[in-house]
Every structure is written in C-alpha cells, then in structure tokens.
UniProtKB/TrEMBL annotation:
Organism: Actinoplanes utahensis
GO biological process: response to cadmium ion; response to lead ion
Name of the molecule in the record: ArsR family transcriptional regulator
InterPro entries noted in UniProt: ArsR-like_HTH, HTH_ArsR_DNA-bd_dom, HTH_Metal-responsive_Reg, WH-like_DNA-bd_sf, WH_DNA-bd_sf
Leader peptide range in chain numbering: none
A Pfam family this chain is assigned to: HTH_5
Domain of life of the source: Bacteria
Length: 109
C-alpha cells in the first residue's frame, strides 16, 4: 500500500468532491453501502457513468469494493470519511460570487 502525504490526501478528497456526481455518490455511500445498479438508479446516471466514478473514488482511496458472490457492494473505505463528510456538511461558507463570476452552483460556489 502506498503511503501518501497529508497534502496528497486532501488533493484526492478535493478531486473526488470536485465532481457533482462523485460528491452525490459519496453522500449516498455515507448513508449506507450500495450496489452499482441501485446507486446508478438513485443518482439518475448510467451504470457505465457510475462505474467510472466508482473507479475514480476507489483510485483516490475513498471507496472500497466488497465482493459478495456474483455482486459487488461499495462502501466508504474508512468510517472517518463519513465523519469528514458530516463535518464538511456542517460548515457555513461565506460565499463571494464576485470571486467566481463564471461559475454556476453545479461547478463552483
């Protein structure tokens, strides 16, 4: 297993959260583990799209795949990720729209 620095951990977390679908996927897995077909339906994305996002989250070390016979269940790699997401959701941000004028709610502030 590769050892990563604190900066690399934050960069991986940031990359995962930088995409709205991945962020929603992490929030869904925060609630409970899930199976790809069910997660795709829940998020309203194709199974291929979801598979790509799960691969990214696995690569970032945030999600693990747990084989269950012919199926694979996905869950957060560490319970502390759930706590980190809870803490992030509890933040109150002082948003300055002028600092990010070309962004929409989907891709920035």
């Amino acid at each position: 297993m590769e050892t990563v620095t604190h900066g690399q951990v934050l960069a991986r977390f940031g990359h995962a959260l930088s995409d709205a679908t991945r962020a929603r996927l992490l929030l869904a897995l925060r609630e409970a583990p899930g199976y790809p077909a069910e997660l795709a339906d829940l998020l309203g994305v194709t199974r291929q799209n979801l598979s790509n996002h799960l691969a990214c989250l696995r690569g970032c070390g945030l999600v693990v795949a747990v084989p269950e016979g012919r199926r694979t269940r996905y869950e957060l790699a560490d319970t502390r990720i759930r706590h980190a997401l809870d803490d992030l959701l509890g933040l109150v941000l002082a948003v300055d729209p002028a600092a990010c004028p070309d962004a929409t709610d989907k891709d920035c502030c």
